[in-house]
Design brief:
Rossmann fold; 35 helices
Length: 731
């Protein structure tokens, strides 16, 4: 691995260093300014969305500055991914963590002291431990520490979505090394979180770069979650339509295991990931996903921070996320290569109740209020009719005007109505109550509520009292949310959700601005398309196969060798020489020498043969997607049934009610599992129940129960009905 010689520093431009070490021809927006500032030994706060190129902002300066750059990283997987990628570019980087043996740790420490390493990745707990602090001092005395790069810096703030107490202790670095510049980086941070990062890390007059949060390649959509079977069927359709790599987020470990299992039963390569698994299991599954050995990872929010897999084509939220900040970061793990990707959220009010229950378990009242407000914001997003990109950007304080053209609300807009008069009434009521109340209270006044609170505060005497009786509560709530989404009104973020007026509000009340809102409509989905022609797509697939083989030989993720965008350029341009190959974006000197000949040979052979078919799977209609596989809990019941246990014995063994086991067995019968109905219900009783079903129908149990004059139990009726439905009756 290479360490730049001091004599080289001023001989090349930053663009030349970029091409030489990372293979790119030009910087992304803002990167060059950040790097130039970092080389001036200043503190920095970098807010840049996932896939925006944050890592390069500290990696390139690390190569150009004397000494060692120490990167604080919260996850072992994140360290390993970035170090593997750097090493594959010929850059001297390493990490120290608990996965290493004592011998390997000492070997790496020796290389660090000898100046053979330019970037060291380490977790905050290790960095600030009593044993490690003396080692830091030794590094600084031997070769100097050039920079502390604090990755995932939002973890330092209790207002962020992933607060970690150990990050608060990092301010100790400033006390011990006051002259070493510090760079804090994160993908998501509201204004309050940004201020907290600066305070907690004691950044000194930092250069602040806030990149646009707009990811134009991501398609956002919200779907109503109906029943479990339909939601899974839709998920399966999405996977089959889009194909390629994807992530499915669920709120519970049980849901993760069940969805992963069902996907495998439907011939989708999928693995689970959650905190209930061992570290080894999680590591194995994550590695398989990153290295394209499995297409889909089904996970709780425990998965994903810093995962470096650029070619994720979809992120599905099977359950409602807890807050917008976490949701944005999770969806941001798709399309990091700049190619189209889809972000689909299934929403139901049942999920809302589940999250509210968890919030209620919090002891601290302030934490409860903040969590409740965050939940309201994500529900507002799910219910919204405005551009979804606009809502997300607004959350982070960024204005976005117009139609994004890449979300369900913009591509399939709802009918628009002029609500300017209603908006004036609403905003006027906020003003007359001195901007001290929330949405529901304002609506109460507008609709003329006689609640004790309204009467006690004498708000029934306001001119706006009762002037909104002609609109329903839901219509007023829809307007209020729309005013917030459009930036025509503000809301406090301290957990109380108090409405505030802004300059735009006064323009509306002064009849200088028009307010339009959308009403409900039916949504659709479409297939993500690729920009490659047919022959280019064939070559692209062949290059992916070559990349996978090389990656497996090196035990690294395929995207460490080359990203999809680089392979797509190869497929389009078909370079035939090393010089032509060097002109491909993503190909630097190191990778040119390491991989150039192999890929050129493959491209030449393709041009001669041109015979490989495109790998594709036919798109299946939702109606043809069948979810006929037992769930994990049903399988446990089935296994005990096969051992000869009675219904009572199974219920006792599993510690659940008998009715639940009956429900499992009924569902197993309908799913055509090997259940002998004669073991459960006597044949004579079966015949009577079937006769009743054929007389009154099978839709509900109660009419059958009453027709049979309550002679048989609901459990017997449920089991026989399942058998009758399975169309396998033998008398």
């Amino acid at each position: 691995m290479s360490v730049p010689n001091k004599s080289e520093f001023n001989q090349l431009s930053l663009e030349q260093y970029l091409k030489n070490y990372f293979g790119y021809d030009s910087f992304r927006l803002g990167q060059k300014e950040i790097i130039e500032t970092a080389l001036q030994q200043k503190d920095l706060l970098i807010i840049m969305p996932t896939g925006g190129g944050k890592s390069l902002c500290f990696q390139l300066p690390a190569l150009l500055k004397l000494g060692l750059t120490i990167v604080v990283s919260p996850l072992i997987s994140l360290m390993q991914d970035q170090v593997e990628s750097l090493q594959d570019n010929g850059i001297a980087a390493t990490f120290l963590n608990s996965t290493l043996s004592l011998t390997e740790t000492r070997r790496r420490e020796t290389n660090i002291i000898q100046g053979k390493i330019k970037l060291l990745y380490v977790a905050p707990e290790r960095l600030l431990s009593e044993k490690f602090l003396p080692f830091l001092e030794l590094i600084n005395s031997q070769q100097s520490i050039s920079t502390f790069a604090i990755d995932e810096a939002h973890c330092v703030s209790e207002w962020g979505h992933d607060f970690r107490p150990e990050y608060r202790q990092l301010q100790l670095l400033r006390e011990i090394y006051p002259d070493v510049p510090m760079m804090a980086l994160t993908a998501t941070a509201t204004k309050r979180v940004r201020e907290d990062i600066i305070t907690q890390l004691n950044l000194h007059k930092p250069y602040i770069h806030i990149a646009s949060f707009f990811r134009s390649n991501l398609y956002y959509e919200v779907r109503q979650k109906t029943n479990t079977k339909n939601t899974f069927a839709e998920t399966l359709q999405i996977i089959r339509t889009i194909g390629s790599s994807g992530i499915i987020y669920c709120n519970s470990r049980k849901r993760v295991d069940e969805i992963a299992y069902k996907l495998r039963q439907n011939h989708v390569s999928a693995l689970p990931y959650h905190a209930g698994m061992s570290d080894e299991e999680r590591s194995i599954n994550q590695t398989k996903f990153i290295r394209d050995d499995v297409d889909v990872i089904v996970a709780t929010v425990a998965f994903g921070m810093g995962i470096d897999k650029p070619d994720v084509r979809f992120v599905i939220h099977y359950d409602l996320p807890k807050n917008i900040e976490g949701y944005y970061q999770e969806t941001g793990r798709s399309g990091r290569d700049g190619e189209p990707a889809q972000c689909i959220l299934f929403f139901s009010y049942g999920d809302k109740k589940s999250i509210e229950y968890l919030i209620g378990q919090k002891v601290d009242e302030q934490e409860q209020r903040i969590a409740e407000q965050q939940l309201r914001r994500i529900i507002n997003y799910a219910e919204a009719s405005e551009c979804r990109h606009r809502i997300l950007l607004s959350y982070f304080g960024e204005d976005f005007l117009g139609n994004c053209g890449n979300c369900d609300n913009c591509k399939y807009p709802k009918p628009i109505e002029d609500w300017t008069i209603e908006a004036m009434k609403f905003l006027s009521c906020v003003a007359r109550t001195k901007e001290r109340f929330g949405m529901i209270y304002i609506i109460d006044i507008l609709r003329g509520s006689k609640s004790q609170k309204v009467l006690n505060k004498r708000h029934d005497q306001l001119s706006t009292y009762g002037i909104g009786k002609d609109r329903t509560v839901e219509e007023w709530k829809n307007l209020a949310k729309s005013l917030l989404h459009q930036g025509l009104m503000d809301e406090t973020t301290d957990g109380y959700s108090v409405l505030k007026l802004n300059q735009n509000s006064w323009e509306v009340m002064g009849r200088k601005a028009k307010v339009e809102i959308a009403i409900e409509k039916k949504r659709q989905i479409e297939k993500t398309t690729t920009s490659l022609a047919v022959d280019e797509q064939r070559l692209f697939e062949e290059l992916r196969t070559l990349r996978k083989r090389i990656a497996d030989e090196q035990s690294v993720p395929p995207t460490v060798v080359f990203q999809d965008t680089t392979l797509q350029q190869m497929a389009k341009k078909r370079p035939q020489t090393l010089d032509e190959f060097m002109n491909i974006s993503g190909v630097g000197n190191w990778k040119l020498n390491k991989y150039g000949k192999k890929f050129i040979e493959k491209i030449k052979n393709y041009c001669l043969e041109y015979s490989l078919p495109i790998k594709s799977e036919p798109i299946r209609e939702l109606a043809k997607v069948v979810d006929n596989f037992p769930s994990l809990t049903q399988i446990k019941t089935l296994e005990l049934y096969k051992k000869g246990l009675s219904i009572d014995a199974i219920a006792n063994e599993r510690g659940v009610k008998i009715s639940r086991i009956v429900g499992h067995l009924a569902e197993l019968i309908e799913k055509e599992q090997a259940i002998d109905i004669d073991r459960l219900v006597k044949p004579k009783i079966q015949k009577e129940i079937i006769a009743a079903i054929e007389k009154v129908g099978d839709e509900k149990l109660k009419p059958i129960y009453e027709y049979l004059q309550e002679r048989y139990t609901y459990d017997d009726i449920k089991l026989v009905r399942a058998f009758w439905r399975s169309d396998q009756l033998y008398f």
